[in-house]
Amino acid sequence: MITAKTARARRSDPGMTQTSTDMMRQDTAASASYAIELRGISKAFGPVQANKDISIRVRRGTIHGIVGENGAGKSTLMSILYGFYRADSGEILINGHPTEIPDSLAAIRAGVGMVFQHFKLVENFTVLENVILGAEAGGLLRPSLAKARGLLKDLAREFELNVDPDALIENLSVGHQQRVEILKALYREADILILDEPTGVLTPSEADHLFRILRGLKEQGKTIILITHKLREIMDVTDEVSVMRRGEMVATRTTSETSPTELAELMVGRKVLLRVEKTPARPGEEVLRVDGLRLVDAQGVERLRSIGFELRAGEIVGIAGVAGNGQSELLEVLAGLRPAEGQAWMNGQPLPLSGRDCDAQARRARRIAHVPEDRHRRGLVLNFHAWENTALGYHHDPLYNPHSWKMDNAAIIRDTQAKMDAFDVRPPDPHLKASGFSGGNQQKLVLAREIEHAPDVLLVGQPTRGVDIGAIEFIHQRLIKLRDSGSAILLVSVELDEILSLSDRIIVMFDGKIMGERLPDQTNAQELGLMMAGMA
Amino acid sequence: MDMMVLVQVLESTMRLATPLLFACLAGLISERAGVFDIGLEGKMLVAAFMAASIAFVSGNVWIGVVAAVGVSVLMSLMHGLASITFRGNQLISGVAINFLAAGITVVIAQNWFRQGGRTPSLSGNARMARIDLPFAEALRDVPVIGPIYHGILSGHALLVYVALLCVPLTWFMLFRTRFGLRLRAVGENPAAVDTAGVSVVGLRYAAVAICGVLCGLAGAYLSTGLSAGFVKDMTAGRGFIALAAMIFAKWRPWHALGAVFLFGLLEAVANRFQNIDILGVNLPVQAMQALPYILTVVILAGFVGKAIPPRAGGAAYVKEH
């Protein structure tokens, strides 16, 4: 896109209709103010075109954001710039000079440093050892370590990058581990720093700290590329932002002249509802009632304390709370995954919370479906094909298992195909392994499996964790649709926005107790926040 | 037990522990770099055969040692090719090397020397000479020091001392040099090494080659130092015992020294006391000879506490982000 613009500019300039050498000189002069310029980068992994003819310019001394949905090709592009992958075609210019980057060593030499989403640290090495690895001062370690120790002290003072140099990585918090990654890059004298989804693993205060560090680095003249799918971060810290969609670069904007809405539209390629549109709930009969529910874990800690609530047909009840206050345990108890004390009734009939008839299969027989919080560990078998995952938990369904001993695989595959089409799972291939789908599409697979059996109660944990904007919107609409068809939904989420926009009633949990119940239009994030902190 | 017997047993422990020590350090270096190697046994066997036959033919044991190291490194590189370059299963590649070694040594030996798969006995310069340490004779009759220095430490083949020297060398290499830092890192998290701009493949090949050299020395000592010639299957599971010692030592060189001495001691005791009476029960010789293997099983079954292997061990490196 940018190359096209340059070409247009060239055509309109009468002085530029000359030989190719002149044009090249012109190009180099023009790109001297850019720390990085990528021209026509393409990269395919087998049949998947991860990057298609991508061009981008990053101004020196700025923070440049790259946004896009999961799987848009952001990480691949940056991994090419860092020499982790090689592009199939295209050109890389660093500070105006065409640069070959066949491996990470070349990138490091060219002054490029990268902080990967999944840190590349040796867990049982110290901070110092990780920092010098690959950039040692000589054959023996002692002088290298001493040199690094001094430099680290300077960097820590300059950029608030405090880390104990002798601590083992495995004993550090993720926030500190990330600082080590930044230190690694700075130790290699990187001028250009790429951060891939840096805040995905950070707490809000750690993220704020990171942004302070990044601004400090920018003031020192460093160029920073920030890959994220969180628009708020883009608006907060970047100077310019480029948007990627399905392997292509669709636009570059000056951050101050754009809006989250515009960026979201560019990312998804159509208008996005940042608020969920829904009609008021028309709650019907009581479906599920829980009373005096109590759970004590193996360590003897009381995780749930006399929980009681009811769930009616056609409503969504959101459970808000800071992670770790008993919401996960509540879901597990209701899904039959762990026994608890107390009483429950489903459609008026007692529902055992412990004993022999308390397992996931028995719950499904009572028309309670469950979308687990951790789809990788509990929602899917990543090594199974999509169609095998679709049958999980429903393998007694007469459609899948007509003879009660021999599965009808063809029927399962057909049904999976139908579910994939209904839920817009991409790629719609039942034979692809679950691990081959992006996070959003994996979640759609799980939701399709549970929702399409039209349960009376759907238990949903973190339905949109690690899911991109387009898929979030789709998942929200599906949940509303299920509610409107008369199912009851119990929604557990740590995203307060999600709770507020989806729920018809909100229950706040703190320390294993229910702190209170609110109606979404009669409360706000501040009040809920106080309740979640146990202060109301 | 009198003093004389103790000295004899410990002296024999030194010799029996030497091939184990070489092999154990070989495995340690390879696994520290993330390449599991159960082919130690096979490499030792081929090296033992090569050392004995070349020493016999040339009449010079050191030519035999060089040949042994050469062939062992070659087999290591085969393992490297299969498991590093072609990302094959490291265990299967190791098993293949063991089978290959067990078969090929006997076939070639039979074809070459026609003595039923063994090499002719070695003598003179074709065997490793014993080295008397300085002042050993003079200190012979000094109490305590005499028996230890003259009786136990002195009078072994050169490779015994080389093996002992390899312990501090390995330790220094692993924990005090740049190469060692990278080697350990590649066994823990190859992606960290790759993104730091260092070749994962290069490092792993280097580790595997060092492993080959050490296995070569282990095999050579076995057939030209410990015995006087190659016999079919003469390694007798020492490669696996070395692996057990390595796990026992939790991949640490100094601990490896202790572990192989324990195994060496058991073997020495079994050799020295053919039958033992314990409380009137006569323990047959086979039971004594089984001791090192029983200990191996016990160790591998995890009765020695938690041994955490290098985290990236056993898996080929594939780029992912």
UniProtKB/TrEMBL annotation, chain B:
<dbReference type="Pfam" id="PF02653">
    <property type="entry name" value="BPD_transp_2"/>
</dbReference>
<feature type="transmembrane region" description="Helical">
    <location>
        <begin position="48"/>
        <end position="79"/>
    </location>
</feature>
<dbReference type="InterPro" id="IPR001851">
    <property type="entry name" value="ABC_transp_permease"/>
</dbReference>
<protein>
    <submittedName>
        <fullName>ABC transporter permease</fullName>
    </submittedName>
</protein>
<keyword id="KW-0812">Transmembrane</keyword>
<keyword id="KW-0472">Membrane</keyword>
<dbReference type="GO" id="GO:0005886">
    <property type="term" value="C:plasma membrane"/>
</dbReference>
<feature type="transmembrane region" description="Helical">
    <location>
        <begin position="91"/>
        <end position="113"/>
    </location>
</feature>
<feature type="transmembrane region" description="Helical">
    <location>
        <begin position="290"/>
        <end position="308"/>
    </location>
</feature>
<feature type="transmembrane region" description="Helical">
    <location>
        <begin position="251"/>
        <end position="270"/>
    </location>
</feature>
<dbReference type="GO" id="GO:0022857">
    <property type="term" value="F:transmembrane transporter activity"/>
</dbReference>
<keyword id="KW-1003">Cell membrane</keyword>
<keyword id="KW-1133">Transmembrane helix</keyword>
<feature type="transmembrane region" description="Helical">
    <location>
        <begin position="148"/>
        <end position="174"/>
    </location>
</feature>
<feature type="transmembrane region" description="Helical">
    <location>
        <begin position="205"/>
        <end position="231"/>
    </location>
</feature>
